[in-house]
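To illustrate the input format used throughout this study, we show a single complete record. The first block contains the structure-token representation of the backbone; no residue identities are included at this stage. The design step must infer an amino acid for every position from geometry alone.
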């Protein structure tokens, strides 16, 4: 929107954020990796910057990693703790690249477990957003 070229960057990280790993309701997802999407923005003022706006202030206030406010001149914290390499992929192939990485990471039953854990996380995050910070 601002005319700054951006390219997707994929990283893998634990599906369950470390601050929540000890909560039993997420136990089936603590060993699973997720394919996380962030951006590299090629700014004319600071060169390439890592951008990740995954978590909003209500979630950051509860300990999830991120950068808010952001100064616009430095890399943001990635919203996940990356566990391996990152992959730059062209935007038109982003979804296909994410799915091919997931196919490589997930064994039988892992996709269903991922979906169950994501639903539980979404419920928790909605409750956090509904409470004052």
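Output of the design step:
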């Amino acid at each position: 929107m601002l005319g700054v070229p951006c390219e997707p960057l994929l990283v893998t990280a634990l599906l369950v954020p470390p601050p929540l790993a000890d909560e039993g309701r997420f136990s089936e997802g603590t060993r699973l990796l997720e394919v996380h999407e962030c951006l590299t923005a090629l700014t004319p003022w600071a060169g390439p910057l890592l951008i990740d706006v995954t978590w909003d202030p209500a979630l950051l206030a509860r300990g999830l990693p991120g950068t808010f406010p952001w100064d616009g001149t430095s890399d943001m914290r990635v919203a996940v703790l990356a566990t391996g390499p990152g992959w730059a992929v062209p935007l038109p192939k982003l979804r296909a690249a994410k799915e091919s990485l997931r196919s490589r990471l997930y064994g039988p039953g892992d996709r269903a477990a991922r979906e169950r854990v994501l639903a539980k996380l979404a419920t928790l995050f909605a409750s956090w957003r509904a409470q004052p910070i």
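Structural context for interpreting the output: Residues 66 and 77 are 5 Å apart (CA to CA). The chain has one domain: 6-96+105-130.
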